[in-house]
Amino acid sequence: MLPAELAALSGLELMRWVQAERPTDIPSIGRLLGIRFDEVEHGRIVLSLDTRPDFANPLGTVHGGIAATMLDSAMSCAVHTTLPAGVSYTTLELKVNYIRAAKTDGSTLTAEGTVIHGGRSTATAEGKVLDERGKLIAHATTTCLILTPGS
Questions:
Q1: Which CATH number is 72's domain given?
Q2: Distance of alpha carbon 41 from alpha carbon 38, whole angstroms
Q3: CA–CA separation, 95 vs 30, rounded Å?
Q4: What domain range is 68 assigned to?
Q5: How many domains does the chain have?
Q6: What is the pLDDT of residues 75-103, one digit of tens each?
């Protein structure tokens, strides 16, 4: 799909396109980390990735930035699903709480983001990252600035 065609999609349509097409020719953080879009709904996103040794911190567990990136992606993409075509957003604030370490052994981490409030100028969302056993790795909240054309 061409950039102009993508720009004409609503946020929900765009996220569903990403989920269905899994574009590998478009550089993105999702491509870099191997993020998969598992569920896409209005106001809710579930994504996952498989850990790998490249994700290690000096202690040998998954670096906290991986969980933070998953949370930022899941929550902000959930916000994106609520926006009409031509309206974008940027993260204003991200607050992450880390609960336990994750292993770099190829296990799957899953992040869910859900919109709490969608306004004209800001939106808020919450998220969590779980390991394969359903154990909580991290949870977060975000505030996104809504950017309307001409603003």
A1: 3.10.129.10
A2: 10
A3: 20
A4: 3-147
A5: 1
A6: 999 999 999 999 999 999 999 999 999 99
